[in-house]
Amino acid sequence: MTEVKSPEVPAPPAAVPSELTPGGRWGRVRPFLPLVALAVALTLPYSTLHLPGIFEGALNEPGTLQLLAVCMVFGGLAAGYDLLFGRTGMLSFGHALYFAAGVYGTDILVTKAGLPLWQAALFTITGGTILAALIGAVALRTVGIAFAMVTLAFAQVGAILVARDFGGLTGGEEGLPLDVSGVPEALVGVTNTVNLYWLALAYLVVVVFVVHRVSGSPTGRVLAGLRDDERRVGVLGLDPYRFKLVAFTLAGGLAAAGGVVYCLIVGGASPHITSSELTLSLLVMVVLGGPGTRWGPVLGGILYMYLDHRLVAFGASEAVDALPAFLSRPLSQPLFVLGAVFILAVYFFPGGLASLAPRLALLRGSLRIPSRGR
């Protein structure tokens, strides 16, 4: 008789550290991180802490607060753009148009038309939302690269109108300074920079809240389905065009609202915000942070704008000048350093900054598991 061998029982898997499981240490801490970040943001204007090399002055100085305000505006702008790119799968090259509409619309209505700020902001946000709906109604008749090119074409039209000083309203290449006589005193002057900081923080909170509510709603699940497989959504009897138009219009309205806040922070409008380079920067912010993630685009937008401002001072520093010419010349160019940082981040963290914590947790786990087996 042939001997029947009993089947081998597989060895039990190695124990996985609790912090790697969904309910582990990271899962317990993660829900409280937004509250911690908000608490830190609320205390910054009252802190006299100096961080040499990170900021030029104390945290509560006007220059630092203005930089942080700009970073938060672009963090919200990147989160709004992620509603298109990361959560719906639409690659738009014209998103800067709605941001520029918010900036120039506020400036023109306050400076040229003499409207009070609250009326100018209301009309500008409404107009920017309608503009996004009209352009989206046309652009969304196409898909893929054709859609990206149509949005880019509309954005270029807007850039040309601004550069040519259409109707004598935009100031052309010199830009249009904001007439502060129509702005509340609480938002004017260096001493009131802290109020602009609060305004930028409020904008960021509103954008994050809106994007998260939309993403968690039935509409958000349809948008995620459009990103993954648009044909399947159509088979289910839903109209992809209508849902994409909703996302496109909402993202445009949020961008216009960011333009209102940005106009107050910088005190006017300049033509560089109408260029397609700004939309490309938004794309870099989203990819750097992690498209389609909860906090990745916000972190990517804040980090990108911080580096964009601080690398100018870094390139002109004595430490860079003391380096050999083959190093000092490229390092003195902020775009070169920013591009190098982006390439390294994408290479080592393909999922963006949002994937950094899980990857580090897996790395710690891989280093701990062998030691326990011994």
From TrEMBL:
CDD domains: TM_PBP1_LivM_like. The chain crosses the membrane at residues 32-51, 63-84, 96-115, 121-140, 147-166, 186-211, 245-270, 282-307, 335-357. InterPro entries: ABC_transp_permease, LivM-like. The keyword Transmembrane helix applies. Keywords: Cell membrane, Membrane, Transmembrane, Transmembrane helix. It is a multi-pass membrane protein. It comes from the Bacteria. It is found in: Cell membrane. This is Branched-chain amino acid ABC transporter permease.
